[in-house]
Task: inverse folding
């Protein structure tokens, strides 16, 4: 009886303290009134020096209309493109899907770093704020997440981007739309998939966090399952994960996703000493960029 009471109390405390808020934790948004990008002075995972700066004429901030399945009207979301818009019809483009924390200002350093792959602005980089993030309108939802990224792909396609020149890169939460839209393409079919610190599925997040064998549906309505979706990906796949990631454990999350990949070519990069948000800085920015460049040009 005491054991049953102990389990019940543990479950009750866990549910009310965290698990029932898993959806909110995955969609952790902070509203903005303006984007500062290069002039942003708030918290970031790392700060690049002046050598990584992007010319102002290669930075375009604008809005897109995104309409998820079943919605009667479109939602306005914000996007930034790094590169020459007039060269989208010939350039290779990295669609960068950011994580669950904050907004594009927070992830600007990461997008800027990718824009230095190979040489400055050799590859275009596209980034959006999902609905409810930053200055984007609406409320975050799983289907909205996919629709928002696809809205960016629709825009890129209208500017002349073709499937063979699209690379999609997902970090943390961004691994969901990146994997989903590679496995089940909508407007464009990515030629390669890159995932940094991906999560396997919502159920694994719960098991890691609770230590209780409870089905994910008990806590969350999210259906995201990267470990299952990756089975349908045939495109070349790049996986990078910090060995000391204490948010998305490398063994239970990233390794499961990688092990389920059975496509044409896969690369695994396990970064010793790196946590969830410190892979580029721990690996070293040049080493990180060399890994990205080598994969894209493979």
Result:
């Amino acid at each position: 009886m005491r054991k049953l009471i102990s389990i019940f109390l543990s479950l009750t405390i866990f549910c009310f303290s965290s698990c029932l808020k898993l959806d909110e934790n995955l969609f952790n948004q902070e509203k903005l009134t303006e984007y500062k990008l290069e002039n942003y002075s708030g918290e970031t995972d790392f700060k690049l020096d002046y050598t990584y700066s992007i010319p102002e004429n290669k930075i375009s901030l604008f809005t897109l209309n995104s309409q998820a399945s079943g919605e009667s009207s479109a939602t306005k979301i914000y996007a930034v493109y790094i590169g020459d818009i007039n060269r989208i019809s010939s350039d290779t483009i990295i669609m960068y899907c950011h994580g669950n924390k904050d907004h594009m200002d927070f992830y600007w350093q990461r997008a800027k770093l990718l824009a230095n792959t190979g040489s400055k602005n050799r590859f275009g980089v596209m980034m959006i704020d999902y609905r409810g993030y930053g200055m984007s309108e609406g409320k975050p939802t799983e289907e909205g997440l996919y629709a928002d990224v696809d809205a960016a792909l629709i825009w890129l396609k209208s500017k002349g981007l073709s499937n063979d020149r699209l690379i999609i890169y997902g970090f943390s939460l961004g691994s969901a739309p990146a994997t989903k839209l590679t496995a089940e393409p909508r407007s464009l079919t990515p030629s390669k998939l890159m995932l940094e610190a991906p999560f396997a599925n919502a159920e694994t997040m719960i098991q890691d966090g609770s230590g209780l064998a409870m089905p994910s549906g008990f806590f969350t309505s999210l259906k995201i399952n990267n470990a299952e979706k990756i089975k349908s990906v045939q495109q070349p796949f790049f996986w990078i994960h910090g060995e000391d990631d204490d948010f998305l454990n490398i063994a239970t999350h990233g390794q499961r996703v990688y092990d389920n990949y059975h496509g044409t070519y896969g690369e695994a990069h396990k970064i010793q000493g790196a946590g969830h948000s410190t892979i580029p800085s721990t690996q070293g920015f040049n080493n990180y960029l060399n890994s990205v460049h080598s994969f894209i040009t493979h």
